[in-house]
Amino acid sequence: MKLASLRLITKDIKQSVEFYEKAVGLTAQWYTEDFAELSTDSITLAIGSSRTMKLFGENLTASTGSKNSIIEFLVADVDAEYERIKGITNNIIQTPTTMPWGNRSLLFCDPDGNLINFFTPVSAEALKKFS
């Protein structure tokens, strides 16, 4: 089994895709007006409009963001990313902070309220894990 993608559902797909294009520096591939993907060499971030949920079944149209999961991106320099991200959103939850497990992390939200973590390994153990 291979984790292929993470899909976010949004009420405003254009706003969400534009946000992620700016945040991660990738250009989305649009497949329909209700579905786009941003792909890295390790995973695809799929973004679907709330209308796509009707294709999976009834009563699945809620799109409220999540505070019980975090979308994480390994970045080269989290402090530099913080300076860039401040220009994209003012919804910063935590400025760059070194965590007890050895990553320096920046936590912020996308337009739908989903938590995003940009992190850079800084301890010897974390550097070893991600190299």
Fold and architecture overview:
The protein has 3 helices and 8 strands; from the N terminus they run βαββββαβββα. The protein is 21% helix and 36% strand. It has 131 residues and is α/β, with parallel strands linked by helices. The protein is globular and about 50 Å long. It folds into 2 domains: 63 residues, Roll (2,3-Dihydroxybiphenyl 1,2-Dioxygenase, domain 1), CATH 3.10.180.10; 68 residues, 2,3-Dihydroxybiphenyl 1,2-Dioxygenase, domain 1 (Roll).
Number of strands: 8
Largest sheet: 4 strands, mixed
Structural class: alpha/beta
List low-pLDDT spans.
Answer: none
Total helices: the number is 3
CATH class of the largest domain: Alpha Beta
Name the overall outline. globular
Please give the alpha-carbon distance between the first and last residues. Answer: 23 Å
If classified by CATH, what would the architecture of the largest domain be? Roll
Instruction: Give the ordered list of helices and strands.
Output: EHEEEEHEEEH
Total separate domains: 2
CATH superfamily of the largest domain: 2,3-Dihydroxybiphenyl 1,2-Dioxygenase, domain 1
Q: Portion of residues in helices?
A: 10-25%
**Assembly context of the chains:** single chain
Q: How large is the share of residues in beta strands?
A: 35-45%
CATH topology of the largest domain: 2,3-Dihydroxybiphenyl 1,2-Dioxygenase, domain 1
| Mean pLDDT level | 91
Strand order of the largest sheet: 1-4-3-2
Rg: 16 Å
